[in-house]
Amino acid sequence: MEPGKNFFSMALGQGMDELAKRRIEEGNKEGHWIMLENIHLMPSWLPELEKILDAYQAEAGAGNPNFKLFLTADPSPEIPIGILDRSIKLTNEPPQGLKANMKRAWTYFPREEIDDKDPKVKSILFALCFFHSTMIERRRFGPKGWNMSYPFSIGDLRDSYLVLNKYMESN
């Protein structure tokens, strides 16, 4: 699958519902693969998506058999049960234990990139990885001892590292 030819990916957000509907219709007719990312951000549109999928299921054999629809989302009670029932669900769970989380966070960054950095940057990155690992491990205890749950994801860790690099380069 070459992106832009048979595979189309789009992040959902405000005003993306019409474009998403068009892509799904085109994909069903022409056999494209469509990925709608972050569907949890448009809960008001999800019942309409469910109706679209119901209509395609009702007219079995009318669409292209190569059509595939991929959906990504964070856990949300707003996602209709009908969408969940007809989906194959994959989850990405962090490993159990501080050591395993730390290893996962640290190995997320390419070794070649880290080896070339200043020792101060390496130390701060290690601290960020430790903070990330602690936050991930702490999640299983719920609100005990913490006021609120904050999902410091691997994306947040990556963004923190980018901010760290920009700060160190500018100073």
Total DSSP E strands: 3
Main sheet strand line-up: 1-2-3
Order of helices and strands: EHEHEHHHHH
Helical content class: 40-55%
The CATH architecture category of the largest domain equals 3-Layer(aba) Sandwich
CATH homology group of the largest domain: P-loop containing nucleotide triphosphate hydrolases
Structure annotation, total helices: 7
Provide the residue-averaged pLDDT.
Answer: 85
Percent range for β-strand residues = 5-15%
Largest sheet: 3 strands, parallel
User: What's the end-to-end separation, in Å?
Assistant: 44 Å
Rg, Cα atoms, Å: 21 Å
State the shape: elongated
Keywords, separated by commas or semicolons:
about 170 residues, mainly alpha, Rossmann fold, 2 domains, 3-stranded parallel β-sheet
Question: What does it look like?
Answer:
Helix 4 (98-107) packs across helix 6 (119-138) and helix 6 runs antiparallel to helix 7 (154-170). It is elongated, with a radius of gyration of 21 Å. It is mainly alpha-helical and 171 residues long. Strands 1-2-3 form a three-stranded parallel β-sheet, covered by helices on one side. The protein has two domains: 7-85, P-loop containing nucleotide triphosphate hydrolases (Rossmann fold); 98-170. The protein has helices at 17-30, 46-58, 81-85, 98-107, 111-115, 119-138, 154-170, and strands spanning 7-11, 33-37, 68-71. The mean pLDDT is 85.
